[in-house]
């Protein structure tokens, strides 16, 4: 909190969230930025590594005008605030801003967070980074308004799977109630974020789900289901990469598998891997072993090679952790 309160009147603030931002990353960052604006902070930029392309479901978020491409960000900000990034690697080339003269403040909820900031506000028990962001805004005396609330509500609802995941505690619903009390409209937000998809994406999903494979013997006999999508798939259906983020949901519904996996091509020979567990397997251990991070039930990493090579690495790690996974399930 002192890092924000001691900011000089003309202090420069840079807010960064992780590459390929999801609802929690972008919503937490923009909601907090709007809160800083209410505190009187004016020299402020928000960004994320890679092309400055906001996924269509998040294109209506308040505060998007604060976004700048990574090539245009301050080189020596007085305060850097990172959102929803478990490690410096998730910040891409923007990680070098952490080494400047300013203070680096990290807001996150990943248990695998490496503590790479000068000040680390990391709560592994929080359902989303937005929970940490809202708590800090409250400590700073920032009242919620509709703009802040919409950003934080999108962040909270996306990371809790529309309040369906195990992390949805009474405190989560209490936070949602505070956000809704500002007058935001949850039905409209949900339609935009969860229930709107181009027809080309529907056809793409059908094709990619059609190649899904079930491997009942993997994950210690609890089952693995996986599929993959290529750049050619996206091009053939004229879709942007963000549409694939929702693909994990129909895959993880497979009753015969505890672990689900979607492997998404981001460049030739480069893949973004999403892992989910229903409770019998700690997929964060798999992701961390392969250079990524996340939570026990939801994690991911970036991989290089062919699809066959990537899935074999995942199988190897699942086998390595199968005894621990089985013990966790029984306990």
Walkthrough of the structure:
The protein has 331 residues and is an alpha/beta fold. It is 36% helix and 18% strand. It contains eleven helices and eleven strands. The chain has helices at residues 2-5, 23-38, 129-139, 146-159, 170-180, 186-193, 199-210, 231-236, 248-252, 283-289, 307-330; strands spanning 13-17, 44-47, 79-83, 103-108, 119-122, 213-215, 224-229, 259-267, 270-277, 293-294, 298-304. A six-stranded mixed β-sheet has the order 6-7-8-9-11-10. A five-stranded parallel β-sheet has the order 2-1-3-4-5. The chain is globular, with a radius of gyration of 20 Å. It starts with a helix and ends with a helix. Mean pLDDT is 93; it is low at 324-331.
Q: Roughly how many Å apart are the termini? A: 38 Å
Structural class estimated from helices and strands: alpha/beta
Provide the succession of SSEs. HEHEEEEHHHHHEEHHEEHEEH
Strand order of the main beta sheet, please? 6-7-8-9-11-10
- As a percent range, the share of helical residues equals 25-40%
Q: Uncertain segments of ≥5 residues (pLDDT<50)?
A: 324-331
Number of helices: 11
List the helices and strands and how they pair.
Blueprint: H1 2-5, E1 13-17, H2 23-38, E2 44-47, E3 79-83, E4 103-108, E5 119-122, H3 129-139, H4 146-159, H5 170-180, H6 186-193, H7 199-210, E6 213-215, E7 224-229, H8 231-236, H9 248-252, E8 259-267, E9 270-277, H10 283-289, E10 293-294, E11 298-304, H11 307-330
Parallel strand pairs: 1-2, 1-3, 3-4, 4-5, 7-8
Antiparallel strand pairs: 6-7, 8-9, 9-11, 10-11
Helix pairs in contact: 2-3, 2-4, 3-4, 4-5, 4-6, 10-11
């Amino acid at each position: 909190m002192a890092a924000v309160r001691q900011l000089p009147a003309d202090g420069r603030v840079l807010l960064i969230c992780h590459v390929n931002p999801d609802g929690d990353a972008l919503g937490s960052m923009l909601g907090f930025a709007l809160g800083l604006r209410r505190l009187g902070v004016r020299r402020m930029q928000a960004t994320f590594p890679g092309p400055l392309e906001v996924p269509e479901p998040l294109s209506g978020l308040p505060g998007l005008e604060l976004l700048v491409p990574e090539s245009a960000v301050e080189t020596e900000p007085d305060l850097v605030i990172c959102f929803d990034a478990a490690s410096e690697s998730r910040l891409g080339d923007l990680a070098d801003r952490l080494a400047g003269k300013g203070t680096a403040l990290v807001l996150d909820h990943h248990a695998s967070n490496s503590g790479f900031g000068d000040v680390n506000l990391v709560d592994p028990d929080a359902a989303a980074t937005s929970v940490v962001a809202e708590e800090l805004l409250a400590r700073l005396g920032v009242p919620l308004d509709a703009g802040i609330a919409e950003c934080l509500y999108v962040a909270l609802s996306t990371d809790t799977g529309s309040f369906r995941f195990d992390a949805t505690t009474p405190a989560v619903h209490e936070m949602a109630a505070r956000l809704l009390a500002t007058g935001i409209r949850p039905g409209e937000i949900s339609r935009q974020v969860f229930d709107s998809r181009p027809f080309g994406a529907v056809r793409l999903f059908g094709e990619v789900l059609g190649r899904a494979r079930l491997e009942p013997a993997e994950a210690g006999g609890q089952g693995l289901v996986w599929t993959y999508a290529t750049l050619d798939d996206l091009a053939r259906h004229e879709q942007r990469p963000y549409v694939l983020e929702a693909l994990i949901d129909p895959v993880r519904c497979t009753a015969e598998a505890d672990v689900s996996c979607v492997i998404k091509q981001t460049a030739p020979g480069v893949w973004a891997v999403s892992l989910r567990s229903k409770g019998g397997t700690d997929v964060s251990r798999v992701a961390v072993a392969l250079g990524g991070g996340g939570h026990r039930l939801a994690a991911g990493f970036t991989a290089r090679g062919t699809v066959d090579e990537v899935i074999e690495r995942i199988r190897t790690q699942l086998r390595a952790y199968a005894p621990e996974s089985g013990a966790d399930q029984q306990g």
